[in-house]
Request: fold
Amino acid sequence: MSSSTSESGTRGRTRRAILAAAASTLARDRKATLADIAEAAQVGRSTLHRYFADRSELMEAAIVDSFRAVEDSVREAAIDQGPALEAMRRLLAAMVDVGDRLAFLFGDPRVLEEFTDSFVPDMSVPTTIDLIKRGQEEGVFDRASTPEWIQTVIWSLTYSGWEAAEKGELPRHGVTATVIRTFENGMVT
Amino acid sequence: MSSSTSESGTRGRTRRAILAAAASTLARDRKATLADIAEAAQVGRSTLHRYFADRSELMEAAIVDSFRAVEDSVREAAIDQGPALEAMRRLLAAMVDVGDRLAFLFGDPRVLEEFTDSFVPDMSVPTTIDLIKRGQEEGVFDRASTPEWIQTVIWSLTYSGWEAAEKGELPRHGVTATVIRTFENGMVT
DNA sequence: TCAGAATGGGACTTCAATGTCTCAAAGTCA
DNA sequence: TGACTTTGAGACATTGAAGTCCCATTCTGA
Reply:
């Protein structure tokens, strides 16, 4: 595995630190400069340039990296197993866990548009859309909504929950439960 | 009324065109340059500078302008009248109507943070929070959620609905109904 | 320990966005 | 029509981020 990158342990660590810093810094401030990102990664600006020649190269790598992180988290949720409702709860929990990555990826629609071709989804991971359709067939998810809208709601609530925790408006440990409750039942009792 | 601004009809029109273009352009692309905004307003870049000396002056004016537009729309919804559930439906419809303004104001958290002091809310307009609390007292809105979280969900669903329509994923005429349904009942039947 | 790898910081260039200014052309209104 | 207003286009200076390069210092692993 690690041999495929042909990188020393040090380089790998530095690289990952920069990518993680890029995602979380840009999630919080989309106008962040490379200097900001380097500082967040506790790395010199010239070191950052050593790993990523220019801004777009960093962006692309950060997007791919974040996608993989989200994919890994979703894979662990095993959303093709068990009842759709329970699978959805695991999915929502998994997404809240990688909230900063999602905020980076989907916070600014344009970020993603410019780099769509730079990422090939892992087809072995069951998609959210599959789960939604399964749930609709099982009769537990609203059939009046399109799967795309439901997916949008999932992202949107997850992002809101992450952001609320970020601002201190919601306790970290309560985010997942709140998001799940809102997703399932809405706001009218 | 118009005399209070001491501006000719032409100047007023140009000013409003620039402010509207700023809000909608920045809502769609947060990195838009002043040249982009001028172009969207069908105005020369030097004309834009004639009205707004620098970027932050334009931002501030655009924020105030958008707030007023949202405030006007919310005022029309008369959310202190009638049952909370119906008032909320009117509020959601009103917010979808000014979706581009909301996307501009709340799309990038930092936009607002930098200019909080530039806007004094009109206290005569009942706030969303008031309506939420009233609804909770009436027993129609989820009491397990804080008013702040419910407000976040309102913004978030409204924004998602606007964005989906923007991308063509939802038909314009169906956005309001979809947002209301999702807000009230969530996704589990 | 010691050679090679990796880093930080600074000097420097490039570039795009911003902001200022002028002037001729077009528009407005009495 | 004619005075006055508003505008667009472009020249120009300024600024901050991006990107390149170098060198002394620190770190790592055999």
Notes: Residues 8, 10-11, 14, 43-47, 50 of chain B lie near DNA strand D (CB under 10 Å from a C1'). The longest helix of chain B spans residues 55-77. The interface with chain A takes residues 29-31, 85, 108-110, 139-146, 148-150, 152-153, 156-157, 159-160, 163-164, 169-170, 178, 181-189 of chain B (CB under 8 Å). Residues 61 and 185 of chain B are 38 Å apart (CA to CA).
